Amino acid sequence: MSLAKPDATDISTKQKVALAIGIIGLFIMMLAFLNFDFPNRAVSLGLSLAAISIGTVIYARDAYLNKLEGIKNDGVWFKSISSRGLWGWIVGIILTTFYIVLYFLPTYLGLGENGNPNSGLISLFDPLSQLLSGRNASQWFVYGTLYTVAIFIFGYKFMLKYKHNRYQQVRTLSVMFFQLGFAFLIPEFMYVMNSDLPYYDLKSIWPLNYYIFDEWSVNGFLSNGTIGLGLILFGILSIFVISPILTYKYGKRWYCSWVCGCGGLAETAGDSFRQLSSKKLSAWKLERWLVHIVLVFSVVMTVAMVYTYLGYDSNNFWLTRDVFIMAVIAFLSVVFGIVLYFKGKELGKDAKIGAIGFFVVILLLLVLHFTGTTQEVFFIQGSTLRSAYGLYIGSIFSGVIGTGFYPILGSRSWCRFGCPMAAILGFQQRLFSKFRITTNGGQCISCGNCSTYCEMGIDVRAYAQKGENIVRSSCVGCGICSAVCPRGVLKLENASEKGRINSNDILLGNDVNLLDLINQK
Amino acid sequence: MEHVVIIGNGISGVTLARHIRKQSEKKITIISSESDYFFSRTALMYVFMGHMKFEHTQPYENWFWKKNRIDLKKAFVKNVDTDSKLVIFSSGEVLKYDKLVIATGSKPSKFGWPGQDLKGVMGMYHKQDLENLEKYAPNNQICKRAVIVGGGLIGIELAEMLHSRNIPVTFLVREDSFWNGVLPQGESAMINRHIKNNHIDLRLSTNLKSINADENGFVKSVTIENTGEEIACNVVGLTAGVSPNVDFLKSSKIELGRGVKVNRFLETNIKDVYAIGDCAEQHEAIGKRRPIEAVWYTGRMMGETLAQTICGNPMQYNPGHWFNSAKFFAIEYQTYGWVFSEKMKSQFEEHFHWKHKDDTKCITVAYHKETKKFLGINTFGIRMRHETFDKWLTEQREIDYVIQHLSEANFDPEFYKHYEREILEAYNHQLQIV
């Protein structure tokens, strides 16, 4: 069906002014990038960030405050930027280029190497960095600042868009808080307190934080007394205790859409692109393979890393290689045993694939143990494995594709296809959690708003129209399906595990005897 | 192998086909002249509003049908020859069936208004209506004003659709308050105000006299009966209800009333011919239901039931407690059990009505005057749990119990404000006054 572009999608004069202000802000940064030497960098940076923020705020206020409360998706598929149109591709290419330069060519941004002072864009951020931690900016400081600003200004826009929905508002305040406090400020202050401590975003948990067990990182923590030890213990506790408890009680959403920085950006700056995720069954199949392969890669890579430095640096650690590798194998076996014992039946065919995956990991670990030297694991340089992971997964997948491709693949492609942390949390959410999205009896009219606006590409409707609750590993609990449902069919809940996964052939509302007859089969 | 032919690929026909396939290996063919694949009719509005693309309204991916061996045929059925068990297409082609199911749904009702077939006059029911609207009302330059005739669920949805493209709308409603044949007064009045808050020119107690053409046969204006006022417009939406889409069966031997006459087994007067969904008309109404139920959910339930019968487990259509839902611009509406409007309710039906001061949330609880038995609830702006009310209706709870336990039925998202206490206070207060 050919759709003429409806005029309602045009922006107002006020929004045009707001856009202009924002673009002036970006232009200041562009000038800095082109090495224009601003006389007063602090003022210039302040002006630039203020213009970007004010522009976005005015734009958002004009877009939502003049309208009555309710769902604000009018024209989403008519606008070029949010429907993979020309603007979508332009923004996608700009973002992708930015990420490539950021990760691989930071000197283009003006990073001063070998003790040289910064220039260009990075030097524009020097005053702010000096203010916070008394050192000059790095490309990561620039990125962190822009990232935080983006979560705040687009988070504000998001909160206006969902001004009738308190779940969305509270959740957005939460990601803003964790981004500003945990990801941005605390690491800077920690540096001020003790400059030897490695950068540590407390909320970033292994395996998302894949470098926490790197030798330099562990050494950094261990050589810094109680604080360092406390921090690394917190990191380990997060993985094995805090995260499982919270995931059991609230589902993986406690992390993915309330705390996580990647999730935070996706939910705020990425909100306009959530509808672009693929809902095809084939995409789901790809997702399951890809995300678990990344998980296996990250587990094996981390074990291999630790294993190597335990070998040549054994005097510094009380752990020996033998004990370590056996402990890992034992832990994985216990987890595997528990899952099979309690959930084997429920998993059905998936149990077989899971078992194969498990034995592959164990086999890899044994091969590692019996062929590994202090230098080499799997007959390649130990550090090569780690750099490969950092390059392909940590940089290209999560950054360049994950965020750069927002306007093409939707806002959560990293979270969905690549994040090993999401894979672990999802595994637990599917099997051991109180969380589910409850379907309200027989009220679904199969309209498809829920599926369309699911950023994780879950075909929510497929469950809702059958009267089934939605219990899926990948669900990050953003709550948008529930928000956009016109008939009040979906509700995110933490409740008893009994009846959490329900499968109905006949929906509520039809004759009761018939219902029993069919559903008992 | 038995061949089941289903005319109509809406929710009724498709539910039927899916359930037959679950239980048997019968050959299944679904015929539609409207679309290649099943889509959700109720979602057409979101395509016009830009919330979704048309393909998003299709609940199953295109490979689904082949995988489940459900044959789809895009053709228009001209007639049915029940003697030789043939479906006859407009192309002259024929298809042999062993069992035939009529699931052709509805069509917009027209009441013989002068000008009702002009260019720019349309219903809002079929995919073709959407395409038509896209043609005649793509924006507010081409369509400077639209007039909607008929104040029901489709009318208000059409108003919301046009409003999303900043097209001025005049909404002609015959009744003196929106949908007050169904909704009690307090609710109906609240929706009147909500419509006006959305800048819709709502004209209550207003009838259409005629639709007037320009020299090229396009809509130019409408004339109002009561006042003779002429309103200039480019599009007229006729949304004064729907009627069964069964004209093609008039020359067949299948018994027709307004729809296809069926018994409780959804069988017509002809052996091996059945009808389900909007187009089926019960000989006698079931409980307080209407003989023709043009609702998504009942279509689905009839499909679920008939699949049993066709697969050798004869079963009556026996719907449980009534429920329904809709959305009026931003206000969601759900109903469980029976709440009748003042016009329709019986002597013994009493109402407890509570409305929030923000004028977007209210509930009406119906109960039996003498026995205090809970009869049903209408809820606006507060989501409620289907399962809980279904249970309470089965258990025949009294209104006191329902009001006191209302929080158990709450289905609003987490962190939403709750109103159960306020409702209880209002309820107690009302009891004191009475």
Automatic annotation (TrEMBL), chain B:
Which prosthetic group or cofactor does it need?
Answer: FAD
Ranges for domain FAD/NAD(P)-binding = 3-288
Q: Which InterPro entries does the record associate with it?
A: FAD-bd_OxRdtase, FAD/NAD-bd_sf, FAD/NAD-binding_dom
Transmembrane region(s): none
UniProt xrefs under Gene3D superfamilies: FAD/NAD(P)-binding domain (3.50.50.60)
Q: Which UniProt keywords apply?
A: FAD, Flavoprotein
In alphabetical order, the GO MF annotations are:
oxidoreductase activity
Pfam families with a match to the protein in the record: Pyr_redox_2 (PF07992)
Tell me which family the UniProt entry assigns to this protein: Belongs to the FAD-dependent oxidoreductase family.
- From the Swiss-Prot or TrEMBL record, give the protein name: FAD-dependent oxidoreductase
